[in-house]
Amino acid sequence: MAENLEVLNVAVSLLIRATLFAAGFSGRVRRRSLRRLAAMDADAKAKEILFLKDRVYQLEMQVSILQKHLHKKGRKPRYEVRERLLILRQMEVFQIPRRKVSRYFGIVRSTLYRWLHKIQDETPSGTAVNKTSAEIALLVWERVIKTLKYEWLKRVPLIKGFDHLALLCTEFESWYNTSRPHMTLEGLRPDDFYYDRKPEEPERDVQTVPNNIERHVFTETRVTAYRLKIAA
Predict the structure, then answer these.
(1) What does the pLDDT average to over 132-140?
(2) What is the pTM of this model?
């Protein structure tokens, strides 16, 4: 009986020490985080707040989707069209890879691919013959604006003003025309295609990498672009 009481006292003592140690460590981490936050300038704090808001929104949506999955555990959950589009939007906005859909949303990968194939099958292919040149140009501009919003401006945590936005649009124009491959141009850039700068196609059995690769870093959006150097 005395031995059991001694063991119990030792266990309680160790538990109290571990609790105090954890509380002290948590306090030091909190003080360090507060000092780091106080040392930030206003722009850095605004970026941090935007990042945390996006992260909270992402986690809230994941929790709501996973809750539905758990409530229907044991039977195959059926997602409405609105919920499917919400999941696809979350993946697009937060750049979640398709291979991690089970980890983030509890959805089987084959289910995700079935949704995507259904969307592609329902999407009309080609351009309608009754479209005028102005309507086709409008469709192209809509696609360019979508690329500007979701592939470029989305990478900028905070747009500081009109001048900053104009700088971002100028960099986007350069990246879009000289660095971004286009599917409709068979992987070429507009500058390569329209100014007859098409690179030579490599041989099928080539085993070396070209050494004339040009690298350009867009600092505002943290995008690194690679392309073959243009011959003088």
Answers:
(1) 70
(2) 0.45
